[in-house]
Amino acid sequence: MKMAFYPCNSTVSVQSGNSATVGGVLFSAGLLGNLLALGLLARSGLGSCRPRPQPSVFYVLVCGLTVTDLLGKCLVSPVVLAAYAQNRSLRGLVPAQGHSLCQAFAFIMSFFGLASTLQLLAMALECWLSLGHPFFYQRHITLRRGALVAPAVGTFTLAFCALPFAGFGDFVQYCPGTWCFIQMVSGDDSPKVKGYSVLYSSLMALLVLAIVLCNLGAMRSLYTMHQRLRRHTRCCGLRDRAGPGGRPSEAFPHPLEELDHLLLLALMTVLFTMCTLPLVYRAYYGAFKAAREEPEDLLALRFLSVISIIDPWIFIIFRTSVFRMFFHKIFIRPLLYRNWHNHLCQNNMESSL
């Protein structure tokens, strides 16, 4: 029955017409981004300040996410590239252990996909609580509890993704023969196969929804802070913000300072949703339509793998002081100066009247 829905499940060579270019680009981008992120984290954690400040909860969470993404890339992508290089499928790379290699590859794929999503949820919760509920955050969110997130996520994900080894669900080889994953098209197989596929995709969908809601809550808190500062500026005027030359002082925290956080959260929400929902859709489509495997399945998996690429760039590199300085110089400072100039012209016109 699997052959009817998965024509590449038993093949020992890579399907013709496919190239390793996309896989190589994804692996290179993910490896470079995560290594750079680890370097930035190590630099911030081993700074020259004495006494050295205690790391934040966000620092601990982002370290766990970066290590998870890097391990996932290093365990999965070299196998795919080796399959393309030898023109052999995962079942054909090690003929005597082809089935075991496919099973292990599928387990690693499902494990790191779910583990990264759970850690992203932990980071979204931390951001939402720190901005929207600061008193609760200061009282209950401690560094020790933050350090327990990675072990807890690993334990839960290990138990959940190992269910196919116990007979609940199954792993199959997908075309072009370079990757294995959860069987998403059930056909007439056991209801356990369909049940695990739907359970995995439903859990991913719930995690995506929770992350989006947390990011929207954090964006709402940032927007409220922005509005308060704008009202405060209008009440007090811009005189206290002007420097000796009549220009707005950059040392004063202007109302647009929160906009970079707001735009960053919006970008994170949109990209994460776009990269995760294709796999959820394909899992539901395969479970209830019983259609043959399609090229969209491989595309959905590649979208899912993009998450581990954009994670380090968004969460770490775009949060560094260099990026903030560039962002404020190009976007925030001109907007601030234009608002200050318009306000000054309006005051001059009112005084002349």
From TrEMBL:
Lineage, top ranks: Eukaryota, Metazoa, Chordata, Craniata, Vertebrata
PANTHER family: G-PROTEIN COUPLED RECEPTOR FAMILY 1 MEMBER, PROSTAGLANDIN D2 RECEPTOR
Transmembrane regions listed in the UniProt entry: 20-46, 58-84, 104-125, 146-166, 198-223, 262-281, 301-327
Gene3D superfamilies: Rhodopsin 7-helix transmembrane proteins
Compartment(s) of residence: Cell membrane
GO biological process: inflammatory response; positive regulation of cytosolic calcium ion concentration
Name of this protein: Prostaglandin D2 receptor
Membrane topology recorded in Swiss-Prot or TrEMBL: Multi-pass membrane protein
SUPFAM superfamilies, alphabetized: Family A G protein-coupled receptor-like
Gene: Ptgdr
Coiled-coil zones: none
Domain G-protein coupled receptors family 1 profile residues, every copy: 33-315
GO MF annotations, alphabetized: prostaglandin D receptor activity
InterPro entries: GPCR_Rhodpsn, GPCR_Rhodpsn_7TM, Pglndn_D_rcpt, Prostanoid_rcpt
